[in-house]
Amino acid sequence: MANRIKIKKGLRIPLLGEAEETLRGRVTSEYVRICPEDFHGITPKLAVKVDDAVKAGTPLFFDKNHPEMVFASPVSGVVTAVERGEKRRILYIEVKAGSAIQYEDFGKKEVASLSAAEVKKSILDAGIWFLIKQRPYDVVAAPGKEPRDIFVTGFDTAPLAPSADFILNGHEADLQAGLDALAKLTTGKVYLSVSPKTTNKGLREAKNVVITEFDGPHPAGNIGVQINHIKPVNRGETVWTLNAPDVALIGRLFNRGIVDLTRTVALTGSEVKQTGYYQMLIGTELKSIFKENVTEGISLRYISGNPLTGRKIDAGGVLRAYDGQVTVIPEGDDVHEAFGWASLSPKRYSAGCTYPTYNKNYRLDARLLGGPRAIIVSNEYDKVFPMDIYPEQLIKSIIAFNIDKMEQLGIYEVAPEDFALCEFVDTSKLQLQRIVRMGLDMLRKEME
Amino acid sequence: MKALKKCLDKIKPNFEKGGKLHWLHSTYDAFESFLFVPNTTSKSGVHIHDARDSKRTMIIVVLALVPALLVGIYNVGLQHYMAIGQDVTFLTRFFYGFLSVLPQIVVSYVVGLGIEFAMAQMKKEEVAEGFLVTGMLIPMIVPVDTPLWMIAAATAFAVVFAKEVFGGTGYNIFNVALITRAFLFFSYPSKMSGDQVWVRTAGTFGMGNGTVVDGYSGATPLGQIATTDAGGFAEFTFHGITGQPLSLSDMFLGFIPGSVGEVSTVAILLGAVILIATGMGSWKTMLSVFLGGFAAVLLVNLFAQNVIMEMPVYYHFLLGGFAFGAVFMATDPVTSARTEKGKWIYGFLIGLIAVTIRVFNPGYPEGMMLAILLMNAFAPLIDFYVIDANIKRRMKRTAIAK
Questions:
Q1: How far is B302 from chain A, CA to nearest CA, in Å?
Q2: Same structural domain, B149 and B273
Q3: pLDDT tens for each residue of B357-379
Q4: Any chain A CB within 8 A of the CB of B401?
Q5: Residues B73 and B179 in one domain
Q6: For an interface test with A, which of B52, B169, B286, B388 has the most A Cβ atoms less than 10 Å from its Cβ?
Q7: Least CB–CB distance from B49: residue in A333, A341, A429
Q8: For residue A96, what are the β-bridge partners?
């Protein structure tokens, strides 16, 4: 029987548009775009030129500071564009997909017979090392550093989050191969977290890992919360973090010998007519699943990811590298609501008690619903922050960029996503995730 | 509403960058966002937001103050007509009280909000809503006869020197409404204490003219007990302004002389219920203030040497500004301790110090204001030690890991 940890603090935001558990087929697009900004913490250097032919698994670019860390093309075809933005920053690399996918052959491998160095080299060479992230700093893991432990979250509690059970259905062998590979990479342990509702056998009966059950509302599925409860990260330590579907992608490399970055993606949100799951490669254009499937006549917000941590994309956007969810909600910039401060409208949702609460799912838009202010209300963040950390004081120390205080208050244990719920409930409408991201980046620069 | 929106959209360009009224941008924005929820959407970070904002928060607190204000207004009229010996209807009393208190509310809001708007404009920021609450608190904690110009001067002083110099709402160290009262108290003691200021005896706008009856005394119950010659509490009785004895229910309902907001304990409790139910006021702070007061009273009762030391604990809670301070002043999130453990300590000490000042300082029978201001200064220190425990735990863990 797994260890069970009960999470009391947190919040389940009742949103409309949860994905129906039906696989609606495979989505392909003519062009696939990879955005290096998805891989936080790296400096991309191009490995291809426009007009180069690539296969699935061919490196498109690599990290300047870790040249061994390459980033695979998810599809085979011809590089058609490298779009750059300010300061020549690479916005995306576009590959025109060929008719049938050709894969680079990395060879099937039996994980059990490989050494730690061989496992690491296999993942690096295949260009999917980015699936492994690290704490502190919440960046792509530095391959040179030995992690204390590796943490894998087997469920997602974010609003409208896809079901890991459903996604991993049929991929249990890949998941186990991935977990075995991870176990080779650390002298510590691999911790896998599941929820009480987890039924997938690959998760429930995973071997070579320590299974912990987390029971509670969001952010119980966040890896940061889990680490904080299992074995917190101390100064000077590094742990690696992944989620279960990404572990299965790594396992797929060993089991099949190819780089197949196909994800099962949930299409969710109140403005989607027919929700469900689609299979697609990362970087696939999403316009075909939006077409005639979203509310018309109002302005919409398309999100790659969930409504708390996802990235804003446009209707022609692509699936970003780490996301297993696409969400469409109303933008709200065409709404004019009078006397909001006095409103008792059942359309308004608040986690606090200043509005009447109804037991229903809400259709929330992207409005801030207020102006930015100084932090006024106390104990607001704490209620949705189930870690042994004082979130408000940590935020203040980051704003002041007081390195000592940041360390003392536990910055090494957090990632921006851990503050997403705080940002949602914040009366002062501050951009907490951005503040934390900035703090982590500046600290990393100071420390490395 | 649509016509109004159209009208706003029409004049908006004047206030935007380059417009000739750009120097009034914050003011325009304050009114627009008061009328319509701003439809700016998130650019990065979370895509959805809670419907609660700063305006909602402040409005709820103002709403919680309303019961105490209404009973207080009625009581101003009640005390007035009692003092001049006239028997009038409920509505007349209420209307008299309303006319007496309204100018103070108007002056407090006009002066305070005027400064807030000007400062926001200078800093090119949005107008913060904090003063909506402060502006309502000020007339509720000063004697009804305080001259308007004093309220104006004190409000201006407090808003500028207790709030704006620190950076505005959310950054102040001391409760702004209490600084206003403290300013008045130390600058114009004769208008803020004694037995002449708590009951309005003069007419208001020609209403309720008359002369006070024989045997009138405007001393508050706490003023009476602080200056009594009685040998013990058993021999002492609280009396109203015409000499009639005061019952506990008078004190609970609020029919005693005192500041507008603080007299009615029942209305304050109703406000406390609103604050706690909406999560706007911390029940921990409120409860711990009463616990601290309770502990202090038990202690002085035990070693009682004079009448006020003998006064039982329920009188302490019913009289003066104790309940009002505990519910509306101590819970101000900006100046209170911000950690949950800290709130217990913070509240407890407020109750303790308030009773101490009350009992041991006959010249100044009401200690709530000074107790809260003192603890405002110590709140960051309390938080420091609470957070330091967390830090020590983490540092210890790091040391073991190495």
A1: 37
A2: no
A3: 998 886 676 789 999 999 999 99
A4: yes
A5: yes
A6: B52
A7: A429
A8: A31, A78
Residue A74 has a CB neighbour count (10 Å cut-off) of 28
Does the residue B38 lie in any domain? no
Domain match, B228 and B375 both: yes
Nearest C-alpha neighbor of A383 from the set A339, A435, A446, A427: A427
pLDDT tens readout for residues A238-292: 999 999 999 999 999 999 999 999 999 999 999 999 999 999 999 999 999 999 9
Q: In the β-sheet with A325-330, what is the strand arrangement from edge to edge? A: A23-26, A276-281, A262-268, A325-330, A300-304, A311-313
Do B235 and B170 lie in one domain? The reply is no
Residues of chain A contacting B126 with CB distance shorter than 8 Å: 371-373
Q: With CB atoms and an 8 Å threshold, state whether A301 touches B130.
A: no
What is the value of pTM for the model shown? 0.92
Residue of A nearest to B54 (CA): A427
Its ipTM equals 0.91
pLDDT category, A50, cuts 50, 70, 90? very high
A427: nearest CB among B54, B278, B402: B54
Separation in Å, CA of A320 to nearest CA in chain B: 15
The boundaries of the domain holding residue B370 are: 222-388
**Of B143, B174, B192, the domain-final residue:** B192
pLDDT value at A1 more than 60: no
C-alpha distance from residue B305 to each of A7, B128, B299, B301, B318 (Å): 53, 49, 12, 9, 22
Task: List all residues of chain B from 48 to 77 with a beta carbon under 8 Å from chain A.
Answer: 48-57, 59-60
Q: What is the DSSP string of B281-329?
A: S-HHHHHHHHHHHHHHHHHHHHT--SHHHH--HHHHHHSTTHHHIIIII
Do A369 and B51 make contact, defined as CB atoms within 8 angstroms? Answer: yes
Alpha-carbon distance of B65 to B329, in angstroms, equals: 11
